[in-house]
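Q: Joint fold for the lines below.
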Amino acid sequence: MDSFNIYQLNENAVTIEFGKVISEDRLQTITAFNHKLQQHPFPGFVASVPAYCTLTVHFDYLQVSRWVPQKVKCFEKVNNYLTELYGTLTNVNISYNKPAIEIPVCYNAEFGTDIDTVSQITGIPVDEVIKIHTSKIYMVHMIGFIPGFAYLGGMDKRLNVPRKAKVNTAVPAGAVGIAGEQTGIYPFKTPGGWQIIGCTPIEMFDINRAQSSYLKAGDRIKFKSVIKQEFEQYSRQ
Amino acid sequence: MGRRQHLADAVPVSGAMDTVSARIANITLGNDSNCAVVELTYSGAVFFAETNLMISYAGEGSVLTVNGETLPKNKPVFIPEGNYIEQKPSGTGCRVYLAIAGGWDVPVVLGSRSTYLPAAFGGREGRSLQGGDTLESLNERSVITDKIFAALQSSSVKYPSWQVSSLNDYRKRSKDIRVVPGRESNRFNGESLSGFFTEAYTVSVDSNRMGINLIGMVLNRLNNTEMLSTAVTPGTIQVTNSGTAVILMADCQTTGGYPRIAQLASVDLAICGQLVPGDKIYFSQITWIEAEKLYMHQEEHLYKAALAIKHKYLY
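A: Joint structure:
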């Protein structure tokens, strides 16, 4: 089992640290434990937030303070609950067992405004850039930065390009970007500095969905190249 | 107040910057403390009462007036239809909260009525209020709200003699912002750490609802190893690579990758919600045990205030 270390973030939240290095196994453990916690929430539980090596658990201080024995600190109570729950964790491979989520992307230069630049920097032809980007399975390590933005791990090192020198003030919703060894999808129109290689018609963030973010930590995804007509069909659905 | 249920989707907490004032405004009307309030930053807003209204407001930096008469804060105020309510600058601080009997009628989005401007949702169509907007209150009022309204209804502006005390002396408290050392506080050198707790920090002009940037002693790290992004909350004090401290506020991102030198005691987050550029603040170090005692004290104060109003009007 991974190391399991809890510290207090504020009066209403604790963070569990599962070691200090990013790895897929660690992501599996965090995802599995998060799943377990969602199924067995404690009275006063509000939300749990996965990040690379941590899971932060938010709660209602007043509710937890009412647990018996009342004299024990809230932090101790939550700490004990989480530690005990972690001890019961057996199956940590839940997301490995799920199929990868397919994300359609149109890589046309019209949408992938920087794909030619990426091709020039890497010396890889555009067709090959698309082939490399769509051949990998990516892990969602966490959702952060802005609502619905997934930090994806597993990008091919050949596509390692620097951020743009000048931040684009309005990257469109659905834009697929790459920078360094990272790739990601902009959920809505926002400023951004990544090289844009395509666009997905999928609404990555939608306030009208029960799960507003299309992706969640622990998901596995795969990009699929689609032509403009298919992109437009998706958009109309 | 705010929304914490969707943090895992990177949806920020949002909500009032000074939650204590926002809650007091609701409490004095017999509202649930989750009722929507209008956050008025600085001054200059003008409202026209199209019907008889019962409002309450709390906070710092401005006052509301009707016909040149300043309306008292922290208590319900009856305003007959046809009057203009004007916001005028007054004293230090920058935000007041306007509550109405029953709460403002804006839709619940992702479990909260709070506005989040960057992604344009919550509140009034995900945007700031504009001239010409019509705001209405919800129809469902609590029994207490109805009783207070009945007691105040009149042909002129009317309010009771009682009020809920502010709890926070903003000017005094900003000289002593209480924090607990953060998870990465040991990444800073001794001089920087002691400077952080003794030197004045000035609020920078580029501060906003996401964060308060501080100008002051540069905070140097013992080493520059990057850390992995992890959860941050309103009240987390991060230090950027240039050594500048930033207090994360209501609209802050849900994760961050800068070392966290300290975390505000929750009770002092409301104080920081009133800071204006140029304000000088000082930090002092306390423990989580002390921070939790302060938090309980605050919650008791607000609970007792709500209870006292209930007893006054219900029995």
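Q: Anything notable?
A: Chain A has six helices and 13 strands. Residues 101-236 of chain A form a domain with the Cyclophilin fold (CATH 2.40.100.10).
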